[in-house]
Amino acid sequence: MDWKISLLATILVPLLGSLSLPLFGLWSARMRNLWAIFLGSATCFFAVSLLPQCLSGDPLVLSYSIGLGMDAVLIVDALSVFMATASSFISTLIIVYSLGYLKNRPHQQEYFMMVVLFLGAMMGLVFSANLLLMYVFWEITGICSWRLIGFFRDNEAVIKADKAFLTTFGGAVFMLLGFALVYSQTHTFNLLEMKGVPISGWAVALITVGIFAKSATLPFHTWLPDAGVAPTTVTALLHAAVLVKIGVYAFARIFNYTFAMPPSWQFYVMILALLSTVVSACAALMENNIKRILAYSTISQIGYIFMGLASFTAAGIAGALLFILMHGIAKAGLFLSAGVIEHGTSTKDISKMGGLFKVMPFTAISFLACVFSVIGIPPFGGFYSKGLVIQGLARSENNLIAVAAILAAVLTAAYLLRLFTLVFLGEPRDTFLHVHREGTPSMVWVVASLAFLSLLSGVFVHYPEGLVHTAVNQMLGNPAVSHVIGALR
Amino acid sequence: MNSIVLIIPVFVPILSGILIFILPRRLGGWKETLTLLGMGVVLVSAILLMRHTGEALHWGLNCPSLEINFNFSAPESARTTLLIATSLQTLLALPLLFLFPKKSRPNEYLFFFLYGSGIVNGIILSHKYVEMVLFGELLFVTIYGVVVLMGLLSSYSTRSVSNPGAVTHDGWSNSRIFILSRLEIIRVLRAFARLVFVSVDRGIDAIYERLLARDFGVLIQWLRKAHNGLYPNYLSWAVGGFILLICFLVFETP
User: Fold this and answer.
1) Cross-chain Cβ contact B197/A285 below 8 Å
2) Mutate to test the interface with B, among A183, A307, A350, A427 (most CBs of B within 10 A)
């Protein structure tokens, strides 16, 4: 298949398809569900079909003039295809899981439309090589997340959705100001024409605020735990596949791939990311709400990704990119397991749970496998990504940060094992809690698949690693980055 | 000196621990002998390493198919730390050998002790951060195992006398958490976590909530009115944004 068709289909199939979903829903709910799965699978298929092109060598660029001297520039390289494949695959699994989870819930038309539109905007964003185009897709994801977080329509959900929207939207405004500064310096929005250009500290600061707000990094992180009021499938989507990964991707695309970031800013980003990791790990240790614990865990792990990227070493960048995949798979598994637990117990309070291993053995084992991956225990996928990030930090001669990252890894183990113990081991602490069954087959199947994938991604790590290596090599092509990396190349 | 001596402090205790774990409990004396023998060998290897004066020792295990590359090395600081650690482990083993046989699961206790000692020595001799992380996490999982075991045993002891089948309020999971929170290191960790959580995380959130409730309250009300579901409303937003974009490009483009 022609790569241009695959590229356009990866973006347009979910974007246009999402608009047709409510029409299918008017016809039949079953048809709408099947259509939603088809759109997710087709997006994943088209993204995967771009793999041979991106592995073969130089990046491919598709450029359309849209008038006023502006071009819609799309890029196919290892970084964009890696993100697109990981996001679309996890999103498709989440759509399948939603069928069981949202059965008999109202507003399903809007839900499926927003989820697929979300996926389409993510695809558009990852393939964009134009700052304005990126911004447009960025805001579409913000609007989708706003509607999805407020899905249940109760007062609390609406307030939390507003909070998430205002934080990410506020960040995006700063980011837009940063883009304007970049434009005033380079007179272009085309990222390909800016490769290796050094940008001012102010521009870095403004763009970083937008990225951190989207990725829920300290001090813009509190909207993410609050977004737990949304359906579990939405939170899984936000945490594992789409929303928070957008910020990470934008950082990699803008700062690792394109511009030359001032060295002092690399250090500031690393410090902020480390603080985010430690503070959110501490918060996860104190919380009793299962979804809030997992949300804080996401913030903590996103910190590792930023540390890896900001280390500007081959190992650090490779680790951060692998982290996106490994964390995405494991965190989706954890959230969807949490959905099964919440479905069965009707509570999110882990202090009331206990002994669920006996009634939910498949969920428990899947949950434990995903916990091991997030902690970073070999041979699960998370081990390689976390190890590479820490190695990258050490190689960039930030030894203290590397040691702090190791200590934060111990905190990760502490809060996740505490979570597992309280939920699955022992006896229920609330006498009114009666759980008799696992989740629906589609829910358990998806959770078990993600757990199995967490293991497989570690055992066969050389497959994703090949793509990651290509992405890192293409990033090293950025003269600014290769200057930073120096002898490590 | 052969560099193989580097793996002795790591693998001998782990292997001794595994042997003790699988040995039948009725074999009296074997556990104690194996423990003493294992710790003795480890201590001797640590002393030998300390006395080594030649080239720095280095031991590696490469497994390219799994992309695993383990390396142990013993610079001077590591050798000193190892000697202190193994001396303490041996000293600790002596009283424990007298205490554990009185416990109901001596094999498990000795296994955890020896396994933990091997992992600690692994952390000391690690050549790379990645190995340090691996051993650190294995140590954490071992500690978790010990805590769960202690919790299990404690729960058995708290079962009601009148109804032995029933687990009392201090049952399995509760006693595990109870014991977990009684460990000094966990107490310190929890206190640190509480301090950070309350002062930083909740502090930041309070600012957001205040902004949301007071300063952005008007904006939110306005946004809710603006998001009224009417098509002309959204069209005017889009057209307005488009005009602004054109103005920007017209005035900015050189």
Assistant:
1) yes
2) A427
What are the chain B neighbours of A376 within 8 Å (beta carbons)? 133, 137
pLDDT for position A295: 92
Q: What is the mean pLDDT of residues A115-138?
A: 91
Place B172 in a pLDDT band, splitting at 50, 70 and 90: very low
Q: Nearest Cβ partner of A68 from B133, B219, B249?
A: B249
Of B67, B155, B173, nearest to A429 by CB-CB distance is B173
Say which amino acid occupies B109.
Answer: Y
CB distance B133–A376 less than 8 Å?
yes
Query: How far apart are alpha carbons B203 and A278 in whole angstroms?
Result: 15
In this prediction, residue A366 carries a pLDDT of 93
Tell me phi and psi for residue B196, to 5 degrees: -65, -45
> For the segment A26-67, what is each residue's pLDDT rounded down to a tens digit?
888 889 999 999 999 999 999 999 988 887 777 888 888 776
What is the full DSSP assignment across chain B? Answer: --GGGGGHHHHHHHHHHHHHHHS-TTSTTHHHHHHHHHHHHHHHHHHHHHH--SSPPEEEEEEGGGTEEEEEE--HHHHHHHHHHHHHHHHHHHHHHHHGGGSS-HHHHHHHHHHHHHHHHHHHHBSSHHHHHHHHHHHHHHHHHHHHHHHHHHHHHTS-SS-TTS--TT-HHHHHHHHHHHSHHHHHHHHHHHHHIIIIIHHHHHHHHHIIIIITHHHHHHHHHH-SS-HHHHHHHHHHHHHHHHHHHHHH--
Contacts of A311 (CB under 8 A, 6+ apart): A266, A270, A317, A389, A392, A393, A395, A396, A398
CA distance B111 to chain A (A): 20
Distance from CA of A41 to the nearest CA of B (A): 31
Return the bridge partners of A73, or none: A63
According to the per-residue pLDDT averaged within each range, which of A185-194, A329-338, A433-442, A454-463 is highest?
A329-338
Nearest-CA distance A258 → chain B (Å): 22
The nearest CA of chain A is from the CA of B175 a distance in Å of 9
The DSSP element (H or E) to which A322 belongs, if any, is helix A314-345
To test the contact with chain A by mutation, choose from B130, B212, B221, B237 the residue with the greatest count of A C-beta atoms within 10 A, namely B130
Tell if the CB–CB gap between A384 and B67 is shorter than 8 Å: yes
Mutate which: B196, B223, B225, B248, vs A, most A CBs within 10 A: B196
What is residue B54's predicted lDDT score, i.e. its pLDDT? 73
Q: What is the pTM of this model?
A: 0.77
Residues of A with Cβ-Cβ distance to B249 under 8 angstroms: 68-70
Provide the pLDDT for residue A479: 53
What CA–CA distances, in Å, run from A252 to A247, A401, A407? 9, 20, 25
Count of Cβ atoms closer than 10 Å to residue A3 Cβ:
16
Structure tokens at B136: 């650190």
**DSSP character string of A65-88:** E-STT-EEEEEESHHHHHHHHHHH
Question: Computed over its alpha carbons, how large is the radius of gyration of chain A?
Answer: 21
Residues of chain B in contact with residue A286, where contact means CB-CB under 8 angstroms, are 190, 193-194, 197
Among candidates A94, A112, A53, A86, which has minimal Cα distance to A320? A86
Closest CA to A285 of B177, B67, B26: B177
**Mutation choice for A interface testing from B71, B137, B155, B160 by most A CBs within 10 A:** B137
Indicate the DSSP class of residue A350.
Answer: G
Q: What is the greatest pairwise CA distance in chain A?
A: 68
pLDDT of residue B167: 43
* Distance between CA atoms of residues A277 and A298, nearest Å: 9
The nearest CA of chain B is from the CA of A177 a distance in Å of 13
Contact status of A26 with chain B (Cβ, < 8 Å): no
Query: What pLDDT score was predicted for residue A436?
Result: 65
